[in-house]
Amino acid sequence: MFSLFLRVVGAIQLLLGLCYLFMPANFLQQMGHSAAAPDLYYPLAMLAARFIAYGIGFMLISRNAREHALWVLLMVLIQLIDLAAGVFYTISGIVPLQLSAFPMFNALWIGVCCAVWYRRNAA
């Protein structure tokens, strides 16, 4: 079951990476964000590289997660940072809740699932 979870999370990461790499303006607009200055597309492409690499990594480790438990633990850290950033920018009024709620929910469920698995299987 956890193998399926890793593949789903990997697919999410790949999709995010491809959207940020190949259609950042359209992707941000579809999510409801303000238009980004074109010079921000470069750091978004760098972010996309990390999404894509982690997505591929999760697809590969899904075959034997215990051997690659560090990847799972690092995803807990990633999701914790994502959630903290979402809470910070929402509370400060920079990002409205209607834009941050779904990504924060994803950070929560992905982070919790990875943390629970790691605690039971690798710690």
UniProtKB/TrEMBL annotation:
UniProt key word Transmembrane helix: yes
Record's keyword annotation contains Transmembrane: yes
Keywords: Membrane, Transmembrane, Transmembrane helix
Residue ranges of the TM segments: 40-61, 68-91, 97-118
Full protein name: DUF4345 domain-containing protein
